[in-house]
Design a protein that fits this description.
Strand content: under 5%
Helix content: 55-70%
Shape: flat
Number of domains: 1
Number of helices: 4
Distance between the termini: 76 Å
Radius of gyration: 27 Å
Structural class: mainly alpha
Largest sheet: none
Order of helices and strands: HHHH
């Protein structure tokens, strides 16, 4: 009856990596990793987001002009995809702006 079930050395088959903690003599990369904080200021982040939004909003118009001029490199499906992407970008920008305004209002309500 004991020969019916196969015996596997599961612990020996596990492949350990540097990301594993508390296994072997390797130091844990998760605990010892130090990341440099490289965060630009708030104005730079929003300026970049606005520039990207502007590019996303202009892309469907540019692609539509290429389609109407008879360019073989652009398909109407590319135009529709760009329009959907620009719509999503506008929705995200609107939501983000609302959240920033809500955060500002909450900060202004804090009494010091």
């Amino acid at each position: 009856m004991s020969n019916f079930y196969p015996h596997y050395d599961l612990a020996g088959r596990i492949q350990h990596t540097k990301l594993d903690s508390n296994f072997g003599l390797l130091p844990s990369a998760r605990l010892d990793r130090v990341e440099e904080k490289s965060s630009p200021n708030f104005k730079a982040v929003f300026s970049g987001l606005i520039e990207d939004l502007n590019a996303d909003l202009n892309a469907p118009d540019d692609l539509l002009k290429d389609v109407m001029s008879g360019s073989k490199n652009v398909d109407i499906h590319d135009v529709m995809t760009a329009m959907a992407k620009s719509e999503i970008s506008v929705n995200v920008a609107t939501q983000l702006t609302g959240k920033v305004i809500q955060a500002y209002d909450k900060i202004m309500q804090i009494q010091v």
